[in-house]
Amino acid sequence: MVNPKVPESDSEVAARVTVEIRLRAVTEVNDGAPVGEVAERYGVTRQTVTAWRKRYEAGGLDALADLSRRPHSSPGRISPDLEALICEMRRHHRRWGARRIAYELTLEIGEQAPSRSTTHRVLVRNGL
Q1: How many CB atoms lie within 10 A of CB 49?
Q2: How many CB atoms lie within 10 A of CB 97?
């Protein structure tokens, strides 16, 4: 239930409208309308309408909301221990940049050391 005193943000309105449109399309198909015609009317492909229908059948109304595009894992991301080591090196040697830290890590841990660009991203991500 929407609280009338708290206005919806633009993104909340867009999400609600998106779900309502998808539900209308699924309802039309379930009532016997051809998938191709429904898809054309809503400006999407037949495969999209079919996907919406399957999602609705599997999970109900909540399944029609947009899915997260965030990856389930980040296999290329460096370990938290290595990130902490980079930050610690920077704190101890304020004048060292990403190039010097990457070089020192190569001397210290060899082939497993991150690249200069990865080291730079770690420093930026941690505000260093």
Answers
A1: 24
A2: 13
Q: In which band, very low, low, confident or very high, does the pLDDT at 9 lie, cut at 50, 70 and 90?
A: confident
pTM for the structure as a whole: 0.54
- What does the block give as tokens for 93? 């040697």
Distance CA 44, CA 47 (A): 8
- Please answer whether residues 61 and 55 qualify as being in contact, where contact means their C-beta atoms are separated by less than 8 angstroms: no
The DSSP secondary structure of 40-69, one letter per residue, reads HHHTS-HHHHHHHHHHHHHH-GGGGSPPP-
Which tens digits make up the pLDDT trace of 80-97?
A: 999 999 999 999 999 999
d(CA 101, CA 90): 7
- For 10, residues 6+ apart whose C-beta sits below 8 A from its C-beta are none
Compute the chain's Rg from CA coordinates. Answer: 25
Structure tokens at 19: 């779900």
